[in-house]
Amino acid sequence: MKKQNNVRSLAAGALERVVEKGESLSTILPVLQKPLNDKDSALLQELCFGVLRMLPRLEALTGQLMERTLKGKLRPLHFLIMVGLYQLIAMRVPPHAALAETVEGAVALNRQQMKGLINGVLRQFQRRQGELMTSVDDAKVNYLHPGWLLKRLQLAWPDNWQQIVAANNQRPPMWLRVNRQLHSRDAWLALLQEKGKDAYPHPDEPDALRLDTPCTVSQLPGFTKGWITVQDVSAQGCIRLLEPQNGETILDLCAAPGGKTTHILEAAPTARVMAVDVDAQRLVRITENLTRLAMQAEVIQGDGRTPSAWCGEQQFDRILIDAPCSATGVIRRHPDIKWLRRDRDIDELAALQSAILDAVWPHLKQGGTLVYATCSVLPEENHQQITAFLSRHSDAQLTDTGTPAKPGLQIFPAPDGGDGFFYAKLIKNVNAV
Ligand SMILES: C[S@@+](CC[C@H](N)C(=O)[O-])C[C@H]1O[C@@H](n2cnc3c(N)ncnc32)[C@H](O)[C@@H]1O
Predict the structure, then answer these.
(1) Does the Cβ of 260 fall within 6 Å of ligand 1?
(2) What is the pLDDT of residue 141?
(3) Ligand 1 pocket check for 290: Cβ under 6 Å
(4) Is the CB of 254 under 6 A from ligand 1?
(5) How many percent of the chain have pLDDT more than 70?
(6) In the annotation, is 48 catalytic?
(7) 256 ligand 1 Cβ < 6 A
(8) Per-domain residue ranges for the chain?
């Protein structure tokens, strides 16, 4: 293996960038994975996700094992030690290989002289594992969440917060969406089973299948031909509620990378869809997804707070707002969220969401449908947001999703179920104003 391809050192570098520099793992990882073979690429992902999932425990253990915290130029080695500990605690890598490769990581990080230290710390952990694990076994460490988030979850969901936290700490299932324009769900499932794999249909979401065992997309029949899309089942619920119809004009706002744009077009292939997102780089992903599925939509860069700048006075039959949010419902898929988000972000996000809702509402036709969705489990972004919206807009009527006293449907992440998600469906009522 080339020096720079030591997967443990790559993981340590990526983790330092996430935890200390606030970079998103979703941005860093694909770049690091590009030159790697499938096996190393999967290992890198596992090491990064695993360490981020159990960071407080690994930090506490490192604190017990080291007299002094490694700082400055030696900081990457702090993360390398946690990569080593994670393998010894949670992976099936033979301990001697985990140790040898992690120690070699110090060489790849140009800290050859620190090999002995890494080796010593990991060997000490092996010798004292039981005692050390007990010494860091307290509630703060065991929940594996930052204090501010734990507090918000406990306050919002006194009966459910433990279930949410436990689900966040698990590996997520892999959900698929069958393009039923091309195959029925059963027909595609039969193609999958011919390849020796299995999946389970969801009882309420007609396109959704949960894979028995996650795999790479290249192993899914017809992926490149658009027969199948990887998408969590909760995200699929947005389009079931939106009910797009052929021939309608539909705005998919906050659309990148286009998971729901293509779902709209699978449900209503002749709908005229405008897909808008503020992030130019992420817009490219919408175009890639449309191309893979051989679909067309108008893809526009724009800010949801200023719709007249990108659609003039146009009104739509249906609008989906898949709002920017804390993503606290998808922590199991993106464990870096726990360490990137800050408490103060929640109020800022709630203000952005309400500005988008208010700005876009005039662009919904009379009698039209707007679905507001987030992948958050925090009330400020969800039912409180919709309660406030309903009080500001007397022509907005809640339908199918909750009650005016507690508007919207809140889904919690569940081990064999979907991600944490929220939806509210609103109709513009001609007679109500
Ligand atoms: C939850 S993601 C959307 C996921 C997408 N709908 C899908 O299904 O693939 C939220 C998106 O909101 C976009 N966004 C953030 N602020 C925005 C704004 N002010 N106006 C429009 N889009 C915004 C982000 O760039 C991000 O792509």
Answers:
(1) yes
(2) 87
(3) no
(4) yes
(5) 98
(6) no
(7) yes
(8) 3-144, 175-230, 233-428
322 annotated to a ligand binding site: yes
- Contact between residue 87 and residue 102 where contact means Cβ atoms under 8 Å apart: yes
Distance 200 CA to ligand 1 centre (A): 30
Task: Name the pLDDT band for 1 (thresholds 50, 70, 90).
Answer: very low
257 is in an annotated binding site: yes
| CATH topology assigned to domain 233-428 | Rossmann fold (3.40.50)
What six digits make up the tokens of 18?
């996430």
Residue 323 CA, ligand 1 centroid: distance in Å: 6
- Quick one: which atom of ligand 1 is closest to the CA of 352? 19
- Distance, C-alpha 350 to centroid of its chain: 19
> In this predicted complex, what is the ipTM?
0.99
Strands 249-253 and 272-277: parallel
Say if strands 298-301 and 272-277 run parallel, antiparallel, or are unpaired.
Answer: parallel
Measured in Å, residue 143 CA sits from the centre of ligand 1 at 29
Say yes or no: do domains 3-144 and 233-428 share a fold: no
Topology (CATH level 3) of domain 3-144 = N-utilizing Substance Protein B Homolog; Chain A (1.10.940)
Domain boundaries 175-230, corresponding CATH code: 3.30.70.1170
322 touches ligand 1 (CB under 6 Å): yes
Amino acid at 237: G
Q: Is 256 annotated as a binding residue?
A: yes
Q: What is the DSSP letter of 59?
A: H
Q: So what's the pLDDT on residue 432?
A: 61
Give the three-class secondary structure for 46.
Answer: helix
Structure token pair of residue 59: 């930090």
For the residues 382-407, what does the mean pLDDT come to?
97
> Is 258 one of the annotated binding-site residues?
yes
**pLDDT (tens digit per residue) in 78-133:** 999 999 999 999 999 999 999 999 999 999 999 999 999 999 999 999 999 999 99
CB-ligand 1 contact for 255 (6 Å cutoff): yes
Spatial distance between the Cα atoms of 42 and 38, rounded to a whole number of angstroms: 6
Q: Which two tokens stand for residue 235?
A: 């995200």
DSSP letter at 125?
A: H
| Average pLDDT of the segment spanning 68-81 | 95
Of the pLDDT bands very low, low, confident and very high (cuts 50, 70, 90), residue 4 is: low
pLDDT at 276: 98
CA of residue 422 to ligand 1 center, whole Å? 15
Which atom belonging to ligand 1 lies closest to the Cα atom of 256? 27
